[in-house]
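Lab notebook, bench 4. Still working through the backlog of constructs that have no structural model yet. Next entry is a single chain of 205 residues. Request: give me the structure tokens for it.
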Amino acid sequence: MINTLNKLNVARHQLGTALDLFIKDRDPIAVQCLACGGSELIEAIASSQSIRTFSTHIMETYPDLDIGKIRRLQRQYWNAFKHLSTRDGLQREDDALLAAFNDTANDAALFVGWWDYFSVTGRLPLPVQVFQLWWFSLNEEKLATGADLETIRKLFPAMKKQTRTEQKRRLRRAVERYRDNNDVLKDSRTENNPLCFPATVFERT
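Model written out:
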């Protein structure tokens, strides 16, 4: 039950609220913090259950990569947002990093978190499925050989040529278009819960 407060649902609430804000083009700093927090937790849950995570996939594909360096890059903005000092107690010098931040940094954070969530649960909310196709449309070069590019390009044509504003608008429009698609909603791989829940979700009667 999504209203049962356990570690899996905490990760789900963070990822869901992050994507809800992202689709609506709301505060990118909040999106980054929620997406990274949820991603870190769901990855740990997957690892504790010996489930293959996105990080595992990266390391298997590129065995010479330093996983510590990968994590630092993935979480560089999140760490800058939540820490004033280094581990040595010195004030962090994050001005240049903060100046470089924008909403595009949230694309990968959300994609990785939801990838690991699906690995654990085997289900995704419909808006997440649309978001994944949107992400693929912007990262075709990262797809495996034989990927269904025709479907992706049909839903999101010529995405790299669009402005960021138009890319996000197309994402919102696609989510709305498929929100009530019965074929997807009835699929066992679709989680039929909203992305973001009301505060009353944890009220006890």
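Notes after review: The chain is about 60% helix and 0% strand. The CA atoms of residues 123 and 188 lie 7 Å apart. Flag for follow-up if needed.
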